[in-house]
Amino acid sequence: EIVLTQSPGTLSLSPGERATLSCRASQSVSSSYIAWYQQKPGQAPRLLIYGASSRATGIPDRFSGSGSGTDFTLTISRLETEDFAVYYCQQYDSSPPGTFGQGTKVEIE
Amino acid sequence: EVQLLDSGGGLVQPGGSLRLSCAASGLTFTSYAMSWVRQAPGKGLEWVSGVSGSGGTTYYADSAKGRFTISRDNSKSTLFLQMNSLRADDTAVYYCAKSPRMTTVNYFDYWGQGILVTVSS
């Protein structure tokens, strides 16, 4: 089973700053089968990125994904107030099951 | 517009059973694999079970094998999760989630609103 480790656990930033979230896999994820989700309190997750770097429909271009192999990154170029949330990565290389990382909380500093 | 509406949650005693439903609209339901993903209070996301678009292939996490059964009624665009022998650690919000392909459970592009299942005496 591929284990995903996200870091940091919490990221404290101000609006307008750049956020860099990391997702490291315990073994190589082929074809960059990594997705990223955003979740706000009391809401369902929302797909942001699939295929490591493809933005989902309607996702602003301040969100970008990169990486390959075992190291993947979600970058939010300039944080807006609505971006403060928890972010999860998911691998679907060995799907099923598609395991999730434990999440990174982006909070207002 | 794709909409997924989860229902059927509630409070159940340990060892009891519950059936969750997810009514889909705005899509050709049979064209997409579907899954259930859960989230225990204050915790992260855990994929539980998935089914191909035809319903012919099912997948389970180890935590669900032998206790949960996923199924779908394509004539009614509805996904089900039959949960038996429920334990306290099954307490979670359960989401139905749609995958973008018919045969493979991969990432999830649409999610239901979630339904709370509480297992407690």
Description:
The complex is a heterodimer of chains A (109) and B (121). Chain A has 109 residues and is mainly beta. Chain A has no helices and nine strands. Chain A has strands spanning 4-7, 10-13, 19-29, 34-39, 46-50, 54-55, 63-76, 86-91, 104-108. In chain A, a hairpin with a 6-residue loop joins strand 4 (34-39) and strand 5. The radius of gyration of chain A is 13 Å and the shape is globular. Chain B has no helices and eleven strands. In chain B, a hairpin with a 6-residue loop joins strand 5 (45-51) and strand 6 (58-60). With 121 residues, chain B is an all-beta fold. The mean pLDDT of chain B is 96. In chain B, the strands form two sheets. In chain B, strands 2, 4, 5, 6, 9, 10 and 11 form a seven-stranded mixed beta sheet that branches. The A-B interface holds A 33, 35, 37, 39, 44-47, 50, 56-57, 88, 90, 92, 95-103 and B 35, 44-47, 50, 59, 61, 95, 100, 104-114.
Order of helices and strands of chain B: EEEEEEEEEEE
Distance linking N and C termini of chain B: 40 Å
H/E element sequence of chain A: EEEEEEEEE
Strand content of chain A: over 45%
How would you sum up the global shape of chain A? Answer: globular
Proportion of residues in β-strands of chain B = over 45%
Range of helix content of chain B: under 10%
Helical amount of chain A: under 10%
Q: Rg of chain A, please?
A: 13 Å
Please work out how many helical segments of chain A DSSP would assign.
0
How is the topology of this model organized?
The complex is a heterodimer of chains A (109) and B (121).
Chain A: E1 4-7, E2 10-13, E3 19-29, E4 34-39, E5 46-50, E6 54-55, E7 63-76, E8 86-91, E9 104-108
Chain B: E1 3-7, E2 10-12, E3 18-25, E4 34-39, E5 45-51, E6 58-60, E7 68-73, E8 78-83, E9 92-98, E10 110-111, E11 115-119
